[in-house]
Amino acid sequence: MTEPIIELHGVTRSYGSPPTVALAGVDLRVERGEMLAIVGPSGSGKSTMLNLMGTLDRASSGDIRIAGEDTTTLTDAELSGLRAYTIGFVFQQFHLADGVTAVENVATGLLYTGVPLAERRRRAAVALERVGLGHRLGHRPSELSGGERQRVAIARAVVGEPPLLLADEPTGSLDTRSGAAVVEILHELNRSGTTVVVITHDVELAARLPRRVSIRDGRIELDQHDRTLEVA
Amino acid sequence: MMPATERRSRLRFGDLLGLGSHGLKAHPMRAALSALGIAIGIAAMIAVIGISTSSEALVREKLASLGTNMLTASAGTDFFGEDAKLPPDAVERVRRIDGVETASWIATLDKVNVYRNAAVDPGATGGLTVVVGENALLDATSSKLIRGSRLNAATERYPAVVLGERAAQKLGIRDVGSSVWIGGNQFTVVGILDRSPLAPELDSAAIIGPDIAMELFDFDGSPTTIYERSDDALVADVRDLLPGAINPESPNEVKVSRPSDALAAKNTVDQAFTGLLVGVGSIALLVGGIGVANTMVISVLERRREIGMRRSLGATRRHIRSQFLVEAMLLAAYGGLVGTVIGWLITALVARANGWIVAIPPLVLVAGVVVTVVVGAVAGVLPAIRAARTSPTTALSG
User: Fold this and answer.
1) Which domain holds residue B365?
2) For the CA atoms of chain B, what is the radius of gyration?
3) Of A107, A134, A167, B134, which sits with the fewest C-beta atoms within 10 Å of its C-beta?
4) Is the same domain home to B88 and B34?
5) Interchain contact B120–A (C-beta under 8 A)
6) Domain contains B73
7) Minimal Cβ distance to A51: which of B3, B315, B393
8) A21 assigned to some structural domain
9) Does the global pTM surpass 0.80?
10) Do B199 and B171 form a contact (C-beta atoms < 8 A)?
11) What is the pLDDT of residues A184-200, one digit of tens each?
12) Cα–Cα distance measured from residue B59 to residue B360, given in angstroms and rounded to the nearest whole number
């Protein structure tokens, strides 16, 4: 398995007319098992990059390959399949369903893979154990703290064991301690083989990751590897 | 690793139904109110159909006890427009037709009237008629006595009379043994008939025997109406043969009718009224459908984040579309179910008040729910398409 999990070639993305350029020709290669931060101030284009890597949006020009698939040639249904099996998302706002329990929220992560309900619930419970919420299975999001909610969201993203996890400001709505716990879980996931991409404007958080891609005005400014932080 | 193109997003049908009801459970009050319009529409339609079928069921039941195998033949008009008469031996020939079980006749005595007593003004006939009839008449017309007995071989010869239900009422006769004044003679009432739905002309008639009619009123033996009953399967055949048998010389002067048909037509609920109510029901259903569409549009706008989230979890556009379509259909079906129950209850109430049996064809109840599901599907199409077109990136950024 030598092909990279993410491969961007001359990717641009512009919106509206006259066009506003959000990404102006980006090349990026992420190998399987990497953990990296994409850092930049707001408006730098980092969220656009997450949307493109997550196949939620299409590039105006350039090639994007995810897990070896050329996403520019895939149909909407095929891209959805890619998201269902290969990519997990974590958002700053958690995006949990309020009316249902933590385990139901996590089980939703398997809904679009056709796994039967009982099996979804079983695996959801396992995923919640994994993020340290084994004791919160029956709680609703409103009964959980912010850090716990984000951990539920992470469990939902990884319940299908996707090789790629995309996290958009995962600590953005959390206090320092809960944020640190979330980052630790991301590290653990990475240690067990998941490629983790964290999008953040938090330089401190980025400093703790082995690779940092700085982005400004739609271009990659800096791509630093920190050997000491890399997993052996 | 399998190529991603072979790992398609899949959504189980059971899960799709779960998703559809999920949205309704989140806003039960809103769901109830928007389903209300549909419920009213379908309730009105079920009630209209139920009430008319229930009343028809009653008529059918009544007809079944009276029999639908009776034909009535009467003298029409002749070639010159004069009132024709039936030949005196017509009944004998009718009895010889294949399949005829019983036959009888009456003859109206035009110039003879019935009064309570001799002192009554001769002009005050009260619309009552004096007819000549024989023993078998009551069998052929399914007429029943409520008092006394029928004319028999003995009483037919004497001034005895059997009164129709309305005739007895008009003359103020309550029981047998009273006397009435017919054509200047005193007659004794020997029987009073119940209402006679198949031969309503008997209701206002005073029936006397043929012998006494010949003796007192020069009755010539020509019947004006012949009643005939045959085997159910042969009614149509007998109907064709009847005019020829009754009047072989001029069969076209004989009018044949089937009173049970007229009775059924008269008793069915007024078509215009039914049409009006069905129209009102359709409008309510239409408005209800618009209500469902409106609710769904709002729901789609409110749940853009949920849509974006589902898309990021691997839902295809089709999955999102199906989810909202199923939600609209469930919402409408919920209204349809409630409406069907309400419609059934209204029918049951009306039927009970009128002493009918509740007779709604089960197919109508099923159709009621199916129609609402179709309404829901139509109402849900546009909101569902809108939901599916929601861009996941803008939905998630909100």
Assistant:
1) 11-63+268-397
2) 35
3) A134
4) no
5) no
6) yes
7) B393
8) no
9) no
10) no
11) 999 999 999 999 999 99
12) 15
